Every structure is written in structure tokens, then in C-alpha cells.
Queue: 2 jobs
Job 1
Amino acid sequence: MRILISGASISGPVLAYWLTRYGYDVTVVERAPQLRKTGGHAVDLFRPAMEISERMGVLPQIEALATGTTELTIYREGARRPSHVDVTKLVGAASDRHVEIMRDDLSEAYYCAGKDDIEYLFGDSITAISPDGDVTFEHAESRRFDVVVGADGLHSNVRRLVFGEDAGRTQFLGGYLAVLSVPKTLARERQSLGHLGVGRVAMIYTAQPLDDARVVFLFRSKEELHYHYRDVLRQKELLQGAFAGMHPRVDRWLEELNLTPAFYFDSITQLQLNTWSRGRVTLVGDAGYCPGPAVGGSTSLSVFGAYVLAGELAQANGDYLRAFAAYERQMDEPVRRSRAFARTAAKRLVPGSAAGVWALARGAQLISALPTSLTRALAGLSARGVRVFDSMQYRDYPTTVGG
Ligand SMILES: Cc1cc2nc3c(=O)[nH]c(=O)nc-3n(C[C@H](O)[C@H](O)[C@H](O)COP(=O)(O)OP(=O)(O)OC[C@H]3O[C@@H](n4cnc5c(N)ncnc54)[C@H](O)[C@@H]3O)c2cc1C
């Protein structure tokens, strides 16, 4: 059985790895000319994604490449003194098995785990998919596949091609997100530093595997802003407007806007498809069920979804209609819970009032002051809340075909 996957970031390589383990013939097409190694950001892996990575044999590499951030200093607008937060305690409250790693490093670990048995077509993109599985590409010769999977992110090409109008069913979560690459000398390893104000947050961090530092900006907006997704100058103007006058340090970061080699800007938007399969085509990861970038644990959900989809295809012996139905059933609850979590996180991470700003800074400080055992015990009381990602249940699929 021949399976085509569009996208080689997180969900694509994880899915490809498991499908080849189950004996399928897998091709991955990626628009970028090679595996992307610039401009990524730090992402989180929670318990189920850690366990799946362990089964793939890549957990030691992933742990070795962890960002290692242990301390966060928060400057609250209007406050005289900063708050110091123990990041390990904060994370410990949300997860008992977690790692933070740069997205590009994670992608490479998954890619390397399976690349020898997978055909990768870099620098290409799908242009059409017929109901019979005939696929045309921008560059490669057209071919026929039994199954096509879109693992090509929030703005998925496969989703647009196959789902038409439904592809755009989204909910704006009231905020924007930007990431800027700045000189490493502006940050310190192991220590994040953030400025927190009403409706806006700016935070810098770096990590041992990085040659630069990254500044993440989050800001609120009641209305969706008007700009073209390719109009980077306008996006930079919008960002500058949102952070004007926050703090001289933030102004210094914004000076890098004209020099930065990597800039990312997008709305915090949640995909709201109720079903993400049509005929022989399905979606995985952010392409199918992005709860919102940076607010909904979407990396873990992507790894989890890729593992479940491959497992269900193997269980159904390639009967893809049966497998897709089982995959969607298995993902229903994790996706709904991640969406709910993301909607709350988008509000809490960027508070809309001075009281909210105070509560966020104070809450983080309090958690970091409690003994880890206590924060874990308190968090464990609400597995449906803060422990949403650790508590996702999945079936124990075999590690190889017939295994
Ligand atoms: C700024 C930012 C901050 C984030 N922070 C966090 C965080 O703190 N924690 C967390 O868990 N998650 C975070 N995320 C989300 C995380 O990056 C994604 O959930 C995760 O990368 C999803 O993986 P994916 O493989 O499904 O999609 P993506 O990582 O989006 O990858 C899609 C792939 O498809 C390729 N592609 C796109 N179009 C085509 C095409 N036409 N043809 C072929 N290939 C194509 C792209 O080049 C890319 O390689 C953040 C995301 C962003 C943008």
C-alpha cells in the first residue's frame, strides 16, 4: 500500500516512521528545500508524546537537546521589582514527564529515526488529488497513492485542496503571536526573561543548541487585524505598534526587526473541523486540529495523532475508511480538550486587565515557591484541567507489523 504524506515537520515524520514500521510504502513531500533548521521555536512534549518518542528510540536525543530553561524573570508593567519563577516547578505542575525542545531539533530527531526507509521529496508540493488517488506535484511526475495525508500545518495545502470551503472553519482566539531571531548576547542560557503588561507579553530565551536567541511576542486584539500573510513590513509595523512604550529592553528587541534573519507572525487561531477525513485523504497534527499555536500543546497532540493514525491503519490492515473512522473517534476527546484548554490559555497568558496581569505573575511565583510534590499533588486533583496533555489515553499499538 502506498501512502503519501505532505509535510516534514513533526506529525509527518512521526507518521512516516510508524507506517514504515507497519510495512507501508511511504513518500513524504515537503515544500521547503530541506528539513527546516531556522526560525523554529521552543515546543513542549508531554507524557504521551514522550512515551511515543521512547518507543521510536529517539528519547535520549530529544532529552539531550532540551532547551534547559530553569528560571523565568517577569517584569510586570508598573511594578518596581521583578518576580522570579522556578520554571521546573511550573512545568512540574502541568506534567510529570515533559521536555521543552526547539521545534527544528525535534523535527530532525523524528526525521532521522525513519529516513532510510522513507522516500522524501523536498522542494515540492501537491497541486491536485483526484478521488482515485492520482496526485500531481509542482515538480515531480504525477503518481497514484492509496492514501494521502496532510501533515502540512495550520495553513495546510492538502486541507485547502480537499476540503474546499470547510478548510477555513476557524475561531480567532483574540490574539497574535510573533517570533523574532535576535543575537544570542541579548539572552542568557537557562534563563527566560519576560515583560508582562495588559494585553501584551514579550519574552526572550536562548538555549545551548541555538546560535541565536528568540523573542516571542503575544498581544491581544479584539478584532482580526488586516494584513496580507506575505506583507512582512505591515506585520512588523503592527507588532511595533502593539509594543510601543512597553520598556527600553523591549524597544531594544524591536530594533532587531530590521535585521532579523527569521520572523514569524500569525494570529492565534483555532481550527474547528469536526471531521478531518474525506475519501482516501485525511489530516494529521496542526493541519487537522490545531488548537492554536503556542497555547494548546499542539506539538504533543501532533505526535499523539500521528501515532494513533498509523496504529489504526495497521489495525485495519489498510482499510483506510475503517481506520480513519477509528482515528477520528480516538482523537475526538483529546482534540476537544485541547481546544478548550487553548481558549482558556489564550486569555490567561495575555491578561486583558491589570488584575489579570497581577494574578498571572503572582500565580506563577506562588507555584514556584511550593514544594514540587505539593504542586504535583494539587495539579493531579484536576486531570481534566492543567494535566490535560499528560492524561491523554491511547491504545497500545504493536511496534511492528505482526508485533
Ligand atoms: C510561534 C509558534 C510557537 C509555538 N509554540 C509552541 C509551544 O510552546 N508548545 C507547543 O507544543 N507547540 C507550539 N507551537 C506549535 C507547534 O509548532 C506545532 O503544533 C507543531 O509544529 C505541529 O506540527 P505539524 O508537523 O503538524 O505542523 P508544522 O510544524 O506546521 O509543519 C508543517 C510542515 O508542512 C510543510 N508544508 C507546508 N505547506 C506545504 C506544502 N504545500 N507542501 C508540502 N509541505 C508543506 C511546512 O514546511 C512544514 O514543514 C508553536 C507554533 C508556533 C507557530
Note: Residues 6-12, 29-32, 36, 41-44, 103, 125, 151-153, 157, 177, 179, 264, 285-287, 293-294, 297-300, 302 surround flavin-adenine dinucleotide (CB under 6 Å).
Job 2
Amino acid sequence: MTTATTPLTTHKVGGRIGAVIEGVRLGGDLDAETLTAVRTAILTHKVVFFRDQSHLDAESHEAFGRLLGTPVAHPTVPSVDGRYALGIDNDHGGRANQWHTDVTFVPAYPAFSILRAEVIPPYGGNTLWSNTAAVYASLPEPLRVLADSLRGVHTNDYDYAAARPEARTAALEQHRKVFTSTKFQTEHPVVRVHSETGERTLILGNFLQKLAGFRAADSRAIIDLLQAHVERPENTVRWQWRAGDVAIWDNRATQHYGVDDSDDHERTLRRVTVDGDVPVGVDGRRSVLLSPESVPEPSHGIASGASTDGSLAEAA
Ligand SMILES: [Fe+2]
């Protein structure tokens, strides 16, 4: 097979995270050389941005996702049109204005998320990402040692009312009902060893409920201490969307935050997630699903990859 000589260029956006890639037309037909360059850029910069990808539709978005891995459905939220794309709209209560890593309430949460902007408001609606490998590396050594030893329990059944006191709308209540239709609890190491880069990254964020072995107040204080480093502006990048943009992030090495400041203007994005592996801590212990006994296939008829690698029998 001949390899195309690609004019791909990469420009960093922030000092510690984020790069814009130019000269690539995303799709299921991307040549191997360009694909390798894109994957390497994602692993290096943690989130990469592409402008002018309006040619993508649900099918080609998913086809491109298959080049990075196996697309997976959200464990509880139904997909758009039976495909592996999840709608991220601001009119159904599913706003993401909390720092989080996607789907950490299951063991093998997604490796990559690919977000495509369809409708962007005239102002606001930016997304921020933080590089948790850089965060970990920047911690004082005693705090790294502490973090290495911690395990955290993540759930999708977190307290929405406390998180979103201003937004008790019928739409939010309905979204919550769907989002928590199966209630998951998973124990992860707070520090995972990234299976592709070998870096140590943090598993924290909004789905983290408590640290194993701590009283609630101590657990909260330690989580807040670590999370504050994740949210330091130096560890983040902020993206101002245009319609047709695509952002791809390494979900194993980032947290992100969708800023909810575009009032009632429409904001519609589509996300395809790609199957991840079960995290392993620095002590070699893997993540464990606490409940339910297994990750059920979503009722909406397409497979979730959340339970595909036999991890659920692994209790260390
Ligand atoms: Fe998200």
C-alpha cells in the first residue's frame, strides 16, 4: 500500500495541553500514516482540535472512530439513530458543567472521545480540558506518594441537586432518570498507569464519590486538594467552538468541563467514544466493578464496550 505524504501540521494551543491539527480531512478512509500521526498527537497533546470538518455525518464520524478503536455506546443514555453517537445538547438537561472524565463509573471507561460540533451558539459554550498526566507530574512528591496509594469509588448516581441547584427543571429530572437507569459503582485507583504512554494519570472528577477507607470529611478534603490541581489554569486549555470543529481527547489522561454560559442558544455536539481498557494502579491493582454484578448491555440495542475485556472477575 502506498502511503500518502500528508501535509499535516500541529500547533500547540496551551503549554501543557492541546494542539490544533491542520491538513487532515477526518473520515473512515484516513490513510495509515496520517492516522498514526493523529494518534501520536492525541497521546502527546491529550486533546487535539480540527477545524472545518463539516463533511462528517453520523456514519463517517463513527467510521473514523473505528480507526482509533471500537466505538461503544453510553451505558445508560440512548444513542442518536441507533448509532454510536451520543448527543450533547443544551436543551435536554445533559449539560456538562462539572469537571469530569467520561463514564468513569464503569471499569473500562472510554479511551478516546471524539466530539463534533454541529450547532454552536453565538457566544459561550466553550469546553475546557485539563492534562492529568501533567497535573500528577507537577504535584509535590509527598502528595504523589499519597495519591499513588488511594482508591476511589465512582458512581453515575451522584447528587445532581447538590451539583446543579439552579437547574431543577423537568428536562434535568428526566435526564437524570435516564442517566441513572442502571446505578453503577466502580472502584478505581486514583493514579493509573497509562497503558499506551506509561504515564501516571489521575482518575478523579465529578463521578468520584468517595475514597475507600476514609471518613466522608477526610475523603472530601483529599479529593478537593487533588482536584484543585486539575483545575489550575496552567494545566488546562479552553476551546472556542465553531460549527464543523472536531475535538479528540485521550479520556484516560484528561478531565473536561463544558461551560454553561450560552443562555438559551442552541448548542448541539455529537460524541463518539472508543472502548478503553481496565485501569491499573501503580501497585498493579486493577479497577473493580462493585455494583451491579456485571455491566449490562444497554437497553437501546447497541453494545457497550464497558465490560468486554473480562475485567470484572479481577479483584486484586
Ligand atoms: Fe464529557
Note: The chain has a mean pLDDT of 88.
